[in-house]
Amino acid sequence: MNRIPRIALVALFALVALSFVQAGGQQPGAAEGEERQEPNLLRIRSVDWLTQKAFIGEAADKFMSAHPGMKVTFESFEGRDVNKYIIQWAGGKSDMDLLVVENPEDTTAFIMKDMLFSFDELGFWESFPRDKLVESILDVGTIREQVFYLPIMGEIYWINTNKKLLKEAGVADKDGNIPHPKTWDELVSMAGKATVGKQAGMSIRLDAGSTENSFYSAVKGLRGSFFKEDGVTFVVDTPESREILAAWRKGVENGWITTATMTDRNAGRVAYTAGKLALLYESGSRWPEAAPSLGSDNTGPLPYPGGLDGGSMLFIAGFAVPKESEAPNTAVQFIEEIYMTDLFQSKMLNVYGKMPSLKSAYAFASSPEWEQMLIATRKSAPAPQYREHHVFTAGLADNIQAYLLGKQDLDACLKAVQEKLDSIDKRIY
After folding, report:
1. If one looks up domain 156-313+383-423 in CATH, what number appears?
2. pTM for this predicted structure
3. Taking 50 as the threshold, does the pLDDT of residue 15 lie above it?
């Protein structure tokens, strides 16, 4: 999917891009000979958690300092509200020029309705070589061989550990070394040893929005793929699926795995950061986030069974440029000057555990553990972007929760999940 950048145009593109900021430029889509000047204003709208963890405010200040006369504004919104922009853009209006979003499967309607520029259309690759980016992370934002979502960070599922608690449980040695579990039954047994009274030793995200991530990351680790041979249809009833779910139910029945995340997706994360939970199975970014409160020597990553070989479900966050943007070229320049740098991407890694899309940023990682996680990331893949993906996600969570709570047997659970998958519109855009 890589294209050879047109190196000879790099210097020319840089001069043209600068002119867009200083004097305005012709937007994509302007009629031939018609100059549509961009204002000296860049309006950014960001999913709330990304405003903080992507340092949007700092980025805005840095860009304005480099370009006197330019104003950058930003506002946050809840991720679940992202599709509200469909109505606005369909009316030919926009209160933003640049959107900072999570995974593409959450905004399929934008692509279906042709509301976004691709970064290929915007000429991004004319001055920035694609091969500087981690290919698996870039692929998540690539649709029909064009990049509509430019990633600045990636995440995979992993085990976040509290080494102190695992030492006390006899799971880790005196130096904090923890054996890599080869099976889910082995990992759940580790959780059992780390369980103290009513405090479970392990948390798995089991809410309606996250069960798919937990389940299919585990499946990918053991199988190497969560798809059938066609490469687009989820597997459901496999030996690996049965091994995973049986181990989880054993953990729930014995009180070794908390069920609090079924109703509060952050329950495990809160307990982990408070120093009460030994094993946290969710985004692999939690251990550096917890380091300030637990101590950097007491937190660390641990591969779940098969994770190093098979990878995980892969998630990204990054930029999208709406076709109703008044400053698409300024948006592109902002991204390249600020976010396509080792400084910004390594800061997101070291402070919040968000894995860079930029390969060179890993050289500035504060822990060598990230190299291992990068290996797994290269083997990871995103969820399929089904048109009714959200319908399947909810049905999967309902049935897995029912099984784990003893309300149905495993055969009935997997049969119901398969029926839900068969019933949805699985067309990709």
Report:
1. 3.40.190.10
2. 0.88
3. no
